[in-house]
Amino acid sequence: MGINGIYVLATVVTLCARLLHGLENGLARTPPMGWLAWERFRCNTDCKNDPDNCISDKLFRTMTDLVISEGYADVGYEYINIDDCWLDKERSYSGHLQPDAERFPYGIRDLSDYVHSKGLKFGIYEDYGNYTCAGYPGSLGYLEADAHTFASWNVDYVKLDGCYSHPKDMDIGYPEFGYHLNRTGKAMVYSCSWPVYQIYAGSQPNFTKIIENCNLWRNFDDIQDSWASLESIIDYYGNNQDNIIPNAGPGHWNDPDMLIIGNFGLSYEQSKVQMAMWAILAAPLLMSVDLRSIRPEYKAILQNKKIIAVDQDPLGIQGRRIYKHKGIEIWARPITPISHSYFSYAVAFLNRRTDGTPSDVAVTLQEMGLVAPGGYRIEDLYEDVDYGVLTPQTKIKVKVNPSGVVILRADVQPIPYRQPASTPYNPFRQIFRPTTLSPNSFK
Ligand SMILES: *[C@@H]1O[C@H](CO)[C@@H](O)[C@H](O)[C@H]1NC(C)=O
Ligand SMILES: *[C@@H]1O[C@H](CO)[C@@H](O)[C@H](O)[C@H]1NC(C)=O
Ligand SMILES: *[C@@H]1O[C@H](CO)[C@@H](O)[C@H](O)[C@H]1NC(C)=O
C-alpha cells in the first residue's frame, strides 16, 4: 500500500506545535458524552396520541433513569440533553423563556434537579435567531436574559442552533451569548452551530474565534438515520481534514452530530463503523436512541469501553484519513501513551465496499506512520484479539466486513535495550534490529 508512513507523524507534530487558545471554562476537556433527543425523537409534540415518545418531561426522566440503570453512566455518558420543541410558542409576559406547560408540567428547573439528583448533568437547546429551527421563540434580542434563565435552571450544557438568523451576524452573536453565559457564573458547555451555517451561506468561518468561544460546534449536515448520511459525514471530515483537525483539542471539539446506533437505519456492522469513526474523530458521543428498546448488541457497541477510551483520550488530537483507495480507508488517531515523542495510535480500517465478502487489508505498521523502534502492542477493540507487540516492519492483516470496520489500538512500547543474540525467539516480544530500518524512520 502506498502510504507515506512519515507523513502522519510529521502532521501530528505540526499540529501539537500550533498553539490554540480555546474557550477556558474548564469544561469538555474530553468530548462530551450523553444522550440527546433530536435524531430519534425529533419534534414529536403529540403527547395525547403518543405519550411515550413525545418531547416531554416524562421522556427525559425515563432516559435519565435508563442511562443509570442500563450502565451507560458507568462508561461515561453523563449529559441528558433536550433539543428543539421544549418551549412554549410564546415567551412569558416578562419576556422569559418558558417550557410548554402541558408537556413539562413541573418546569425545567424541576427536571434539571431530577437529572442532577441521579448524578447526571442537564443540557438544553436554544437558537441564536428569531426562532428555533422548529419555530419556537429564539434568543435574538434576549441573549442575556436567556443565559440567566439557563443558569437559574442549573443547566450544564447549552446547544445554540442558528436557524432564522443571518450567518454574518454570528461572529458577533455567538460570542455575545457566550459572554453572557460566562457572566452568569454557572459553567455551561457551549455547543455552537455557528460554522455550519456560515459554510452553508458560502462564507469561511473564523475558527480562531469559534475556538475561543465554543466548546464544540457543528461543521456539517444534521445526521439522518441512514448509512448514506453517515458516509457523507465521514467523507466531509476526511475531505476537509486539513482545515478541521487543527481546531480540535481539550475544551474545543468538532461535532459530527449524534450517534444513531440502535435506531432503524444502520446495520450492525455500520453501527460499529459509527462508533469507531466517532472515536477516531474525537467526536462528542451523544446517543440519540430509544434506550427502552435498544437491542443488546447495539447497546454493547455504545458501551464499548475500549473505543470510548480512544474517544476520550486526554491528548484530544483528532484523527485523520491516511489512506483511501477502492473503497478501503485507513484512519489513524494519535493517542496516549507517548514514549520518546512517539505517539500511540488508534487505527480504523474502514471498508466502504459492498461486495458481499470481507476484504483483506495488509499493511506494515511503518507504512501507517507507526515507526517507534520499540514497536507497539496491538489490540483489536471489537474482537478479543491481542496481537502482542509488533515491530514497525510487521505486516498486519485484517479482514474487514462490507460496510464494516476493524479498529485497533497500538500502544507504543518503550525503546528496548539491545538484546543479547541468544534471546530465544518470542513472537510477542519481537526484537528491534536497527539495520532493517531506514534512517528516515527516525525523523
Ligand atoms: C428578527 O426579527 C426582527 C424583528 O422583527 C427583524 O427586524 C429581523 O430582521 C429578524 N432577523 C432575521 C434574521 O430574520
Ligand atoms: C469565564 O471566563 C473566564 C475567563 O476565560 C474563566 O476563567 C471562567 O472560568 C469562566 N467562567 C465560567 C462560569 O464560564
Ligand atoms: C478571526 O478571529 C481572530 C480572533 O478573534 C481575530 O484576531 C482575527 O482577526 C479574525 N480573522 C479574520 C479574518 O477576521
UniProtKB/TrEMBL annotation:
Segments forming domain Alpha galactosidase A C-terminal: 316-404
GO biological process assignments: glycolipid catabolic process; glycoside catabolic process; oligosaccharide metabolic process
Signal sequence segment: 1-22
Pfam family, one: Melibiase_2
Record keywords, A-Z: Disulfide bond, Glycoprotein, Glycosidase, Hydrolase, Lipid metabolism, Lysosome, Signal
Any one Gene Ontology molecular-function term assigned to this protein's record: alpha-galactosidase activity
Taxonomic superkingdom: Eukaryota
Xref: SUPFAM superfamilies: (Trans)glycosidases, Glycosyl hydrolase domain
Class of this enzyme: hydrolase
Subcellular location: Lysosome
GO cellular component, one term: membrane
Enzyme Commission numbers on file: 3.2.1.-
Subunit structure: Homodimer.
PANTHER family on file: ALPHA-GALACTOSIDASE, ALPHA-GALACTOSIDASE/ALPHA-N-ACETYLGALACTOSAMINIDASE
Membership in a protein family: Belongs to the glycosyl hydrolase 27 family.
Name assigned to this protein: Alpha-galactosidase
Organism of origin: Laodelphax striatellus (Small brown planthopper)
Lineage: Eukaryota, Metazoa, Ecdysozoa, Arthropoda, Hexapoda
